Amino acid sequence: MKKLFALLTFLILFTAITCENEPIDDGIETIETNMSCEQAVLNTAEAALAFLEIDEGNYQQLCIAYKEALEAQILACGDPDGSIQQGIDALGDCTDPSTFTDCEAAENAANLAEINFSNANDDNYETLCVIYRSALEEQIFECGDEDGSLQAMIDELGDCSNDPDPVSDSEIRFSAGTAPIVFDIITVVEAGNFLEVTGESSANGASSYRIYFEVEQNATGVDIINSTFEVTLTSTFFPNTDGFDDFTSNITTNEAGELLGTFGGIVTNADGGDLSLTSGVIEVYY
Asked: What start and end residues bound the annotated signal peptide (predicted)?
């Protein structure tokens, strides 16, 4: 088994490193560190990604940095099952840049990053997400992405914000009968090749008002959001197509950071109650 492939494979095994102090290898007791377990884990993940870039000129430097990160992690987190020490042993004295398959190494680094990301918390979410996204990009570079699944994962990660921030200067509005309804708290989530758009109202007494729809990125045209459109006022209403004032929509602009359109017509709730929406406008900037 090639050294790097085996090394990164072992890294996948320790997915939930605890911060309990465990006995450490005598050979690294002289290393000094005051960093937290969380920071040590992040440093190791970053060193693992950097190690993917090794060549004959930088192998020793990146190997030593990686080895030191693993040693620091033992000091900060312990090594209950000895798996981290196994990684240190696999690196040896960093003088043997054994041949390896770049695709295998990239794939295993991405697997490690995914597992670390799945255990992220509010404090390290963004950092682990960026590392995971970088690992996926490296995997595409080294292995290709014939079915587009890796790129879909990257798209779903988006900008690695923990919770999508409400989009400023955005608004979705319409009139229900004679009452104007404005959704001024807009959230846009990039899920694969689709935008998931949610609007809420900050108006007093309207905190339960909500509008939602999905649209394929860059797609424009008539009625392309209708199958996912819903609006919640006193109850949740969906587009009506009974043949009288049918609900219709038109996305006129759909490009990076901007989504514009109009909508209106009859919407119906689960009890068969109808509501007429007029002057519907979508102005979303993200």
From this structure: 1-21
Q: What is the dihedral of CA 191, 44, 101, 106, to 10 degrees?
A: 0
Alpha-carbon 46 to chain mean position = 17
What is the pTM for the complete model shown? 0.45
User: pLDDT tens across 62-78, in order?
Assistant: 889 888 988 888 888 88
pLDDT digits (tens, 9 = 90+) for 118-167: 767 777 788 778 888 888 888 898 899 988 889 988 888 877 876 555 55
CA 219 to chain centre: 22
Question: What is the rounded CA–CA span in Å between residue 226 and residue 85?
Answer: 56
| Helix 37-51 × helix 3-13 angle, to 10° | 150
- B/e letters for 23-57, b = 16+ CB within 10 Å, e = fewer, are ebeeebeeeeeeeebbbbbbbbbbbbbebbebeee
Give Cβ neighbours of residue 15 (< 8 Å, ≥ 6 apart). 115, 116, 118, 119
Hey, CA dihedral for 32, 38, 39, 42, is it positive or negative? positive
Q: What are phi and psi of 174, to 5 degrees?
A: -165, 175
